[in-house]
């Protein structure tokens, strides 16, 4: 009987492992561009708004379509859960570690505390928080050590 139970457990465990979602894989730059174009179309946002944000890094706080664009894009890139209730920071950190030192990304920890019921607003507020934090990293990296001890 004990062998049968172990066998059933192993079959269940194997079945569960087969149903587990695949590990996160960073989208390539080409994939990210395709996702952006698809979300621009889905949300019906003027592409120039996205281009302006990329150029100026000024976020349009009152533009609902921009927030919906972020929601669409983050879901498709794997940075927002499919139900839109939480940011997937492990995936986001994996992406950001391509551009920043992993140790530096600790400044983003407080962004994880953002809680909002609306997925589009959740994405927008997290992006605001992340950008402020990344600017701190960049400012620290640009400092010159004048301490000649």
From TrEMBL:
Stored Gene3D superfamilies: Pheromone/general odorant binding protein domain
Matching Pfam families: PBP_GOBP (PF01395)
GO MF annotation terms: odorant binding
Signal peptide: 1-19
Keywords, alphabetical: Signal
Claim: ATP-binding is one of the keywords in the record: no
Top-rank taxon, per record: Eukaryota
Stated name of the protein: Odorant binding protein 39
Organism of provenance: Sitophilus zeamais
């Amino acid at each position: 009987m004990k062998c049968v139970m172990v066998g059933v457990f192993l079959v269940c465990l194997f079945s569960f492992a087969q149903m587990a979602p695949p590990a996160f894989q960073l989208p390539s730059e080409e994939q990210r561009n395709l996702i952006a174009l698809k979300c621009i179309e889905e949300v019906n946002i003027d592409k120039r708004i996205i281009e302006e944000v990329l150029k100026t890094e000024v976020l349009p706080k009152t533009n609902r379509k921009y927030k919906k664009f972020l929601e669409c894009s983050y879901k498709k890139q794997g940075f927002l859960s499919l139900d839109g209730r939480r940011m997937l920071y492990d995936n986001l950190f994996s992406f950001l570690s391509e551009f920043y030192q992993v140790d530096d990304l600790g400044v983003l920890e407080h962004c994880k505390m953002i809680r909002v019921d609306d997925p589009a607003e959740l994405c927008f507020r997290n992006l605001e928080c992340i950008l402020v934090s990344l600017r701190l990293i960049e400012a620290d990296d640009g400092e010159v050590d004048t301490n000649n001890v």
